[in-house]
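Good morning C.,

I know you're traveling, so I'll keep this short. The sequence:
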Amino acid sequence: MVTKARQREQTRALILGLAERAFAERGYAGVALEDLVADAGLTRGALYHHFGSKAALFGAVLEHAQGEVARAVELAAGADADPLTSFLAGCRAFLEASFAPGVRRILLVDGPAVLGWDDWRAGDLESSARLLDEGVAELAAAGIIAPERLRTVATMISGALNEVAVAGAAASPDGTAEIDAAIETLARMIAGLAPDDGE
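The tokens, ready to paste straight into the viewer:
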């Protein structure tokens, strides 16, 4: 017997799955709630009961996408004990995930536009940016970079990775060459942040 709570969870998951595909394919502006509820076999009232608005539904889809990317980064970064190799693997995983057209559109194109910069950034800080801060701190603790202005370093790397994801994926959906070039460039930038010999 399916409980009401379980039925609510199933309905919410169904709506989220359909919405994620729709937002990925057509973008926020191209998705009509009428189409989503028709595809789900639900009423508009049921959708509003679970999410309240189209923007709230998109916010839930974005949060899920941020979580998936963060998990991919954590998995890749945890595969090697060397701090620099681990850090670069995490950055590569972020780019590989973000080069997927749907993920890029939801996370980096529509996300800031629909939610507003402050709300989008808050979600980013809880997921990818948090991992980036931790990775930069580990590089400093290992003596790979100087232990100064780490927040600034992480912010600059975050901005660079996001820009590569937006611009690079638009130019080349496969993105392997762009990702390789970005990671190589990032490694060289990190080498330039090494502590001075006198430190």
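Safe travels,
E.
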